[in-house]
Write a structure and sequence with these properties.
- The chain is of the alpha+beta class.
- It folds into two domains: about 120 residues, Yope Regulator, Chain: A, CATH 3.30.1460; about 35 residues, no CATH class.
- About 35% of the residues lie in helices and about 30% in strands.
- The chain contains four helices and eight strands, in the order αββββαββαββα.
- It has a six-stranded antiparallel beta sheet, with helices on one face. The chain has a two-stranded antiparallel sheet with strand order 7-8.
- α2 runs antiparallel to α3.
- The chain is globular, with a radius of gyration of 16 Å.
- The structure holds zinc ion.
- Zinc ion binds next to loops.
Length: about 160
């Protein structure tokens, strides 16, 4: 069984077409399999965690933390992209991750986000307001949103 399916069954996470969706204290985490057809040594898992408007200082703290813990957490690469999504690639070249290791990694990162006050507070992907009541998947990554905002956005797209 694939790691993602195993995780979904063990921890009751949502699993849909090779994507794993996890909600820990309202932080939404998307995990996917990455397949490199040219160099299978690059195959592995990638984690996406949307961050709510982190300050430059918080971003730096996060980078320092990930650098210091990359071996212990078995992280290969990490970056905060232009849309403030934290992207983490697992280090899986020689050995597959165990589900316990994966669970530990996710929970350690989320705990650190809380420690430095990068809260998620269910911020809406569209209007940036709080108290989202729904979620939306954009480019396979799950975000919080207001159902009203999503409907408005979708009706604009249809025109
Ligand atoms: Zn909204």
């Amino acid at each position: 069984m694939s790691l993602l399916k195993q995780l979904a069954e063990t921890y009751h996470y949502e699993y849909h077409k090779n994507y794993l969706y996890i909600n820990i204290d309202d932080y939404l985490i998307t995990v996917r399999n990455y397949i490199d057809y040219f160099d299978p040594r690059n195959n592995g898992r990638i984690i996406y965690i949307p961050l709510n408007d982190p300050t430059q200082e918080q971003k730096e703290q996060l980078m320092v933390f990930l650098k210091a813990n990359s071996l212990n957490l078995k992280i290969r690469e990490y970056v905060i992209d232009d849309l403030n999504v934290l992207v983490i690639r697992l280090l899986e070249v020689y050995k597959k991750f165990k589900i316990e290791e994966f669970h530990h990694l996710i929970n350690t990162v989320i705990k650190f986000l809380k420690d430095i006050n990068i809260s998620y507070e269910k911020v809406c992907r569209y209007c940036k307001g709080n108290d989202s009541d729904s979620t939306v998947i954009i480019n396979k990554i799950k975000y919080h949103c207001h159902s009203k905002c999503r409907e408005e956005f979708e009706s604009k797209m249809k025109k």
